[in-house]
Amino acid sequence: MKVGYARTSTVDQLAGLEAQLRDLDAAGCEKVFSEQVSSVGKRERLDAALDFIREGDVLTVTRVDRLARSTQHLLQIVDLLNTKGAHLHVLNMNLNTSDATGKLMLTVIGAVGAWEREMMLERQREGIRKAVEAKKYKGRKPTARAKADEINTLRQQGVGPTEIAKRLGIGRASVYRILSRGVD
Fold this sequence. Notes:
Blueprint: E1 2-8, H1 14-26, E2 31-36, H2 44-52, E3 58-61, H3 71-83, E4 87-90, E5 95-96, H4 100-133, H5 143-146, H6 148-156, H7 161-168, H8 172-181
Parallel strand pairs: 1-2, 1-3, 3-4
Antiparallel strand pairs: 4-5
Helix pairs in contact: 3-4, 6-7, 7-8
């Protein structure tokens, strides 16, 4: 059986998810698991797909980065599939782990992807360092401080810190920090 897995990082990426589902359907996937969650978050549908797969099945994804968060994670998934007697098929590369060449190519591609990500993060850190030195880096806007007046007003009305945090969509620690300073 062909089992598909589709993932986007956020719920805003609906078109990307729909494209993956369309491609998995066209590839003949009989059962598809999909979710909209960051690769570093808990991916319950991926776990369900891996649990569902049986001997002879093929887990199909549109791209490697939709499946694994690192080369190590990718190899763990492939190893799990191997222990179950199943394989991985990556559509955009027509890569299949049912043979030695497919396994080699998947490992190389996973390593290149991890290297690419590290290079991007390195460039990002360098850019931030330069912006800090040039006094142009401001960081993220402090959301709780911007709501200090609302926090103090709600507190004066007898609303508790936990409820204030819920109503304003900020962390409870931020509410306590603002309240401890008085009017900010």
